[in-house]
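Take a look at this chain, tokens included, and explain the fold to me:
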Amino acid sequence: MRINVIEYHNQPPFIINEASKKGLSFDIVNALNAKSERFQYQLSVLPKKRAQLTIADWINGNCFKSTTCDENWIMLWTNPKWGWGKNAQENYLWLPLFSDYDAIVSLVDSNINFIDANSLIGSSFGGLAGHRYAGIDELAVSGQILRHDTNDEETLILRVLKKRVDSIAMQKSTLTFYLMGRYAEDVKKLKISQQHYQYFIASSMFPPNRVDLKDEIFQLTQEPEWQLLFDKYGLSPIF
């Protein structure tokens, strides 16, 4: 039976190169396929809106009393608060995978010492186009912060290094990937906020009746190779 593993975080370390199937999400799917005797897992890398459209009947509440909806799916790296309908925590099965947070990154010689969004007043901020930054957006609308957007995380790092913006917000897991790799020599130039901008648990989400799928991933988390998958990208899994 084919299981659609949906991934909408098209960024390192989850997706490094979709064409060559490199990244943590591909690694996990490969590990599941190597272990499973019942299912064939296939990764689908989609924009967030497409991911939501794929399970729209679930989000709209049409499936919880129906037996006709597709139940052969898993949503990777998500959270009950991220747009999966009312009472998402109760309506789906969840398996926490690792904790992550958005950090505010600036140069070490900057005057920014991040405590909350007000710490950025009077400065320029780099964000991702289409992303909402609670607290920061309101200050940008009022003109107290100058927001400059780009389309990918690596460009954000370059913009702060080249002093084109004073600070950026970036998911710590993605930042770690870049600072372990091609920007390793720039680590000492950057100041990463100790105060988290936004903290969250990245989990797998399953249809409410698919305890079998949840159990397969949970069993994988108990294997030594699970830790090794995360170690490869400088991450620490919950299990």
